[in-house]
């Protein structure tokens, strides 16, 4: 075989390899042009991955590449630094009332016992919880005492009128026939002066201060001029005279007074006031000292620190033991501490000498009305669990009076008087609230049928009063009333070793009422001669049902 033949044979053997290689190059992108385009695309991409990845939310240990065994030293709080105060749940919402049934309790609407003019100070908006369930608050300020100072003028000297009171009393006080502005009967800071000395005192009950107190059914003209309890107008005089005898059936812890007798709460606060009356010129200092203590107490009271508040309240009472406002505040702290029996023991002698607070005063001492409502409901639950506890009924009656719930107050005072016959204050408040809550209906009935009123009896001739009259009250002492021919009278009360005597002029006024005028004081009474040798003496303006005194001619 020649060389040419050998060359052809070699080319034939290599031809399949060349065809396979050409096909492979065409499949990768079509020759050199495709490769050139692929190089450009490759140039647009980053040559390599980043040297390091972004740090993760939790860093790894650079050696072990494991997560840390604990969380970072500081981490954001899951809760805000201060949480908003949660809205308190009112105790009158469904499912929280203490065993009452819907429709069983219907409180009288407030505003029916308003004074002639509304208070001009210490007013504030008041929330309006449901008013028709126990443990709730009045929908608006209930009546409220009027604490504006009032100049009554000279008044003249006609029997039955106050003379020369100046501007020492408010317009509600002027409605009372029986009154005393003699310091010996009031001591330090009587209730009608508190608004001038205590900035937090917003007013007192207005019960009985309206013209409809007796509901139109007055035994005779003038006798039915209602105002409140006799002790609210006469102070200690009505007890020093022997007309009323006081006994506190509810025990209370004694408050020690550094420079005086301890406060035992066995006498009306007016008696404590006269025994601890400050000397002239010391009253302002006494007020300043006691007010500093009560202000400190009220500041922590709003924070709910009631034990601390009680300590400062005790200091305030010790500084001014004759100020009923301080004792009433102390009773409120005891109420908040659920020391109900002791709170009743403090309040009973306070209410013997003056009306209790109104809603304006009460609510100003709390951080919110809901706090007071919860505490009132706790007292209701306690009273329901212990229905024989007279002190709980008395305390509930007081708080219902504050809220102007007169029908409920009547029921509670009636229960207290029945369970504890020695509680004369509860009996008087029972009659007062009952007559006041029914005054509107009674007045309407009287207007519709004026002939139904009891005709006034014939006045007792003055000459038939001359002589000495004695009322024997047994263990409570003896009262002697002597009428002289010169128009003078002498009243003597003797109880054991204790003797009180006062005197002045007596006369009959135009309404046939006996008027006893003494120094800066006045007693007005309906008198009758039921039979020969007997004289019935009933002070005007007190709660209905007052038996008064029965005298026998000596």
User: What do the pLDDT scores average to?
Assistant: 73
CATH homologous superfamily identity of the domain at 173-448: Tetratricopeptide repeat domain
Question: What gross morphology would you assign?
Answer: elongated
The CATH topology of the domain at 173-448 is given as: Serine Threonine Protein Phosphatase 5, Tetratricopeptide repeat
Corresponding CATH architecture of the domain at 173-448: Alpha Horseshoe
Kindly report the spatial arrangement of strands forming the biggest sheet.
2-3-4-5-6-7-8-9
Concise description?
With 554 residues, this protein is of the alpha+beta class. The protein has 16 helices and 9 strands.
Q: What do these coordinates show?
A:
With 554 residues, this protein is an alpha+beta fold. Among the domains are: 173-448, Serine Threonine Protein Phosphatase 5, Tetratricopeptide repeat (Alpha Horseshoe); 457-553, Lipocalin. The chain has helices spanning 3-27, 31-44, 194-197, 230-234, 237-240, 269-275, 283-301, 306-319, 324-336, 340-351, 359-364, 369-385, 390-402, 406-419, 424-437, 439-448, and strands spanning 179-180, 467-472, 478-483, 488-495, 498-508, 514-518, 521-528, 534-539, 549-553. An eight-stranded antiparallel beta barrel has the order 2-3-4-5-6-7-8-9. Helix 7 packs antiparallel against helix 8, helix 9 packs antiparallel against helix 10 (340-351) and helix 12 (369-385) runs antiparallel to helix 13 (390-402). 42% of the residues are buried.
């Amino acid at each position: 075989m020649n060389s040419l033949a050998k060359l052809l044979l070699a080319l034939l053997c290599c031809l399949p390899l060349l065809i396979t290689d050409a096909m492979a190059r065409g499949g990768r992108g079509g020759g050199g042009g495709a490769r050139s385009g692929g190089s450009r695309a490759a140039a647009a991409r980053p040559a390599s991955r980043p040297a390091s990845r972004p740090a993760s939310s939790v860093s790894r240990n650079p050696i072990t590449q494991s997560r840390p065994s604990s969380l970072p030293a500081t981490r954001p709080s899951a809760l805000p630094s201060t949480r908003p105060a949660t809205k308190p749940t009112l105790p009158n919402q469904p499912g929280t009332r203490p065993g009452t049934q819907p429709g069983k309790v219907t409180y009288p609407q407030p505003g029916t016992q308003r004074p002639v003019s509304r208070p001009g100070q210490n007013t504030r908006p008041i929330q309006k919880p449901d008013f028709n369930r126990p443990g709730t608050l009045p929908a608006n300020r209930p009546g409220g005492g009027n604490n504006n100072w009032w100049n009554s003028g000279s008044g003249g000297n006609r029997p039955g009128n106050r003379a020369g009171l100046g501007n020492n009393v408010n317009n509600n006080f002027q409605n009372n026939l029986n009154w005393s502005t003699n310091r010996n009967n009031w001591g330090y800071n009587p209730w009608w002066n508190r608004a001038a000395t205590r900035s937090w005192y917003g007013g007192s009950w207005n019960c009985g201060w309206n013209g409809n107190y007796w509901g139109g059914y007055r035994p005779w003209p003038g006798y039915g001029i209602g105002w409140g309890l006799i002790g609210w107008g006469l102070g200690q005089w009505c007890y020093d005279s022997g007309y009323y005898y006081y006994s506190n059936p509810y025990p209370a812890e004694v408050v020690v007074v550094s420079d005086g007798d301890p406060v035992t709460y066995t006498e009306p606060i007016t008696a404590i006031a006269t025994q601890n009356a400050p000397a002239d010129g010391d009253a302002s200092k006494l007020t300043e000292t006691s007010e500093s203590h009560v202000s400190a107490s009220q500041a922590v009271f709003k924070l709910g620190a009631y034990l601390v508040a009680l300590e400062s309240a005790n200091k305030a009472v010790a500084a001014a033991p004759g100020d009923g406002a301080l004792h009433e505040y102390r009773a409120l702290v005891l109420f908040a501490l659920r020391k109900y029996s002791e709170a009743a023991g403090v309040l009973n002698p306070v209410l013997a000498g003056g009306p209790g607070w109104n809603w304006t005063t009460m609510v100003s001492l709390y951080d919110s009305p809901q706090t007071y409502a919860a505490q009132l409901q706790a007292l209701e639950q306690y009273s329901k669990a212990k229905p024989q506890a007279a002190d709980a009924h008395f305390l509930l009656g007081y708080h219902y009076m504050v809220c102007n719930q007169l029908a409920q107050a009547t029921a509670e005072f009636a229960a207290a008087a029945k369970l504890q016959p020695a509680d004369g204050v509860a009996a008087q408040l029972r009659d007062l609230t009952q007559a006041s809550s029914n005054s509107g209906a009674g007045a309407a009935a009287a207007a519709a049928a004026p002939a139904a009123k009891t005709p006034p009896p014939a006045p007792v001739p003055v000459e038939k009063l001359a002589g000495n009259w004695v009322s024997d009250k047994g263990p409570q002492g003896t009262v002697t009333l002597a009428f002289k021919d010169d128009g003078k009278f002498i009243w003597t009360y003797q109880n054991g070793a204790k003797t009180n005597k006062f005197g002045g002029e007596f006369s009959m006024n135009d309404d046939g009422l006996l008027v006893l005028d003494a120094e800066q004081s006045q007693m007005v009474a309906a008198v009758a001669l039921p039979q020969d040798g007997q004289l019935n003496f009933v002070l005007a303006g007190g709660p209905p049902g007052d038996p008064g005194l029965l005298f026998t001619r000596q």
